[in-house]
Specification:
By secondary structure, the protein is of the alpha/beta class. About 20% of the residues lie in helices and about 15% in strands. The chain is built from six helices and twelve strands. The strands form four sheets. Strands 5-2-1-8-6-7 form a six-stranded parallel beta sheet. The chain has a two-stranded antiparallel ribbon with strand order 3-4. The protein has a two-stranded antiparallel ribbon with strand order 9-10. α1 packs across α5. The radius of gyration is 19 Å and the shape is globular. The model has no long low-confidence stretch (mean pLDDT about 95).
Length: about 270
């Protein structure tokens, strides 16, 4: 069967990393259609919501890269549906409430995620699993039950690891300072080898950047290919590209230079 995942799909040589998608509650009320028209102003709340989730997802992809684990992507929320023609929020003739939990490929390009890119130019490939992965009845109990929770704590608090040494779990959790770079994060969590699921309560502050510029640039080169598009406003072109690097200076996949201030606009 085409969609019959083999047993090895439910395991990984190192394990998995997952996270809770937080911070969306205040964005959801304004994420739906803003004007009811097929224009850019109508989609601003949707992009506020999705861009917030892309920031969390970017940190999670970085953490998965550093730890060498597969990322279990949480459910994503969209303020508007996607359709290959102009619309004001939903496909004409459909009837469902906005915002909604949208398919992952509404936001990211899953073909690009699975593409074999040069490791020298794009860093290591990042394995991933769907949001329902841990709920799958075929998930082995010994893997699903091998878990440690990671909390981000205030620097200086007792038991809040600074990345100077491996931290041992206490009552099924570890606590790390915010903003640890890749080397410090890897060292702090190296004591979790053998744990199959490392579950972050938040990605806010969980990753402070790569220790080596070359690693960051390779990671950014991979992320340039990862985002998909939203479609469409009544314009030509009418689609708007998501960008996982929208808030940092970079050159996007179309060769456009951004200074870290993203502007909502259609095309190319």
């Amino acid at each position: 069967m085409l969609f019959d995942d083999p047993p090895e799909y439910f395991d990984h040589p190192v394990g998995f990393v997952s996270f809770a998608m937080d911070g969306i509650e205040q964005l959801l009320p304004n994420a739906g259609p803003r004007t009811g028209q097929m224009d850019l102003d109508n989609v601003r709340g949707h992009f506020d919501l999705v861009n917030h989730q892309l920031l969390r997802l970017r940190s999670a992809l970085a953490v998965a890269t550093v730890l060498g684990r597969a990322l279990v992507v949480p459910e994503l929320w969209c303020g508007l549906d996607r359709w290959w023609a102009p619309h004001a929020g939903t496909i004409p003739g459909s009837n469902f409430e906005l915002p909604f939990q949208c398919p992952l490929d509404h936001v990211v390009d899953l073909e690009a995620w699975d593409r074999d890119l040069s490791v020298d130019a794009h860093g290591p490939k990042i394995a991933w699993r769907e949001s329902s992965f841990f709920r799958n009845p075929r998930m082995p109990a010994h893997i699903n039950g091998s878990r440690v929770t990671v909390e981000v704590c205030e620097a200086g608090e007792p038991g809040c690891a600074d990345g100077g040494a491996p931290v041992a779990p206490s009552s099924g959790k570890v606590r790390i300072q915010p903003g640890l770079d890749s080397e410090a994060l890897k060292k702090a969590l190296s004591g979790l080898e053998g744990t199959k699921v490392v579950e972050f309560k938040t990605m806010d502050g969980a990753f402070g950047g790569f220790s080596r510029i070359a690693d960051r640039e390779r990671f950014y080169a991979r992320l340039r290919t990862y985002a998909s598009i939203w479609c469409c406003i009544h314009a030509h072109p009418g689609h708007v590209h998501y960008d996982m690097l929208f808030d940092v200076p970079h050159v996007d996949k179309f060769g456009r230079s951004w200074n870290g201030t993203w502007e909502l606009g259609p095309g190319p």
